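Input structure tokens:
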């Protein structure tokens, strides 16, 4: 990985990037809740239908993830960010149009969401890969913590705003807010100044070889294999949680969309606290210890969510659900920046996109498979029982990492091993 710019943190380029990402995040959290509400209330769907929607969103990561990683490593990242923001805005506008024409159905919604997922796949690969070029290496964890903190604020306000918008204008129209934020993000991202040099190479290996290089790097050559496997398991548990949460709140607990939005917003508050304390926590616990502590907090949060509605209802159940969401949000805000910093510290710049998309492709492949199964599990044993299963899997992740050498990992001293075949790793973008 390159050391990045030498200017103090935050750089002007990073600030513009951060603003674009933050505004887009606000809209995304509105859409996430609005789309699930469309399935449950507008289309009279079940937990399994929500699982199919979530699966469609992440399907492109399974089908295209490795290809996109290799292609993004060949190209300048900023134009990709601008283009995919514009594409996402256009796709989201199709949902209220279909609803207005009375042709909106679950298959059509899943199809739109799948194409939208392809755009966010490219955007995410370019977004994560450009950060090491915007800030010095010494400030990489702070940069990710700032991104996570802003995302947590968006997570706080977004669901509450979504609940209000759904109540006032209906779920299908609420997604227009996200379309507007993507347009703003495209404009802001176009003004980010970043040096993306052209690759100094006379030849380039075939795309298939570059894809294999990314997979080998994650699972064999970089020391990331343990973290990668644990992360995949975390995503399996979270896929169950994602499929069950809306039906659990709206059907099992009898909450309104506004109450669900408020409870979900507490996750953002927890995320802000987690991101704010992540740097200090990392200094005290180390990278490995901070990540393990975050996963432990996730486990506690899901257990609390499963207890919502036990002897309570209405606003009390909303508060308990919100408390569990707060723990879950804290965990993500606290641990994510350390995972990302450790991953990028071990990865050369030429492999950043392939490393990111290899991990993300595997993670989203897990969601594609597990989300419908999580919905089916909820149908068979109940929404609360499915939450208990998710909590158990989260606990396995904690034990796995705590028993592995990763518990002593330190991103500040980590160095990338030599790539197994340097000639296959282009050093720049075109």
């Amino acid at each position: 990985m390159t050391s990045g710019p030498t200017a103090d943190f935050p750089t002007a380029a990073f600030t513009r990037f951060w603003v674009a990402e933050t505004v887009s995040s606000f809209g995304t959290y509105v859409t996430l809740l609005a789309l699930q509400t469309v399935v449950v209330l507008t289309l009279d769907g079940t937990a399994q239908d929500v699982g199919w929607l979530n699966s469609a969103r992440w399907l492109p990561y399974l089908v295209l993830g490795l290809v996109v990683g290799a292609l993004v490593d060949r190209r300048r990242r900023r134009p990709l960010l601008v283009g995919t923001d514009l594409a996402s805005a256009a796709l989201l506008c199709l949902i209220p149009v279909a609803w207005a024409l009375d042709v909106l159905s679950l298959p059509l919604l899943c199809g739109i969401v799948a194409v939208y997922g392809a755009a966010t796949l490219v955007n995410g690969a370019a977004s994560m890969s450009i950060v090491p070029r915007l800030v010095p290496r010494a400030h990489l964890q702070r940069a990710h913590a700032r991104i996570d903190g802003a995302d947590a604020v968006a997570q706080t306000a977004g669901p509450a705003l979504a609940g209000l918008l759904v109540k006032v204008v209906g779920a299908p129209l609420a997604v227009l807010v996200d379309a507007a934020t993507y347009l703003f993000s495209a404009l802001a991202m176009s003004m980010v100044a970043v040096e993306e040099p052209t690759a100094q190479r006379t030849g380039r290996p075939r795309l298939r070889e570059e894809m294999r290089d990314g997979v080998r790097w994650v699972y064999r050559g970089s020391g990331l294999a343990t973290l990668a496997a644990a992360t995949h398991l975390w995503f399996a548990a979270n896929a169950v949680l994602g499929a069950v949460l809306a039906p659990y709140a709206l059907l099992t607990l009898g909450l309104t969309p506004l109450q669900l939005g408020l409870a979900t917003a507490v996750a953002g508050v927890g995320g802000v606290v987690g991101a704010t304390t992540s740097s200090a926590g990392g200094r005290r616990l180390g990278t490995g210890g901070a990540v393990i502590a975050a996963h432990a907090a996730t486990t506690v949060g899901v257990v609390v969510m499963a207890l919502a509605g036990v002897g309570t209802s209405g606003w009390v159940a909303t508060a308990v659900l919100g408390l569990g969401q707060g723990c879950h949000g804290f965990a993500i805000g606290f641990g994510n920046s350390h995972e990302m910093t450790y991953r990028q510290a071990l990865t050369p710049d030429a492999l950043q996109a392939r490393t990111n998309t290899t991990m993300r492709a595997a993670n989203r492949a897990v969601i594609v498979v597990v989300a419908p199964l999580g919905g089916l599990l909820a149908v068979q044993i109940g929404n609360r029982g499915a939450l208990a299963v998710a909590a158990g899997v989260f606990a396995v992740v904690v034990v796995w990492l705590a028993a592995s050498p990763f518990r002593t990992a330190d991103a500040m001293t980590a160095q990338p091993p030599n790539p197994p075949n340097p000639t296959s790793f282009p050093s720049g973008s075109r």
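The chain is about 80% helix and 0% strand. The chain has one domain: 12-191+206-420.
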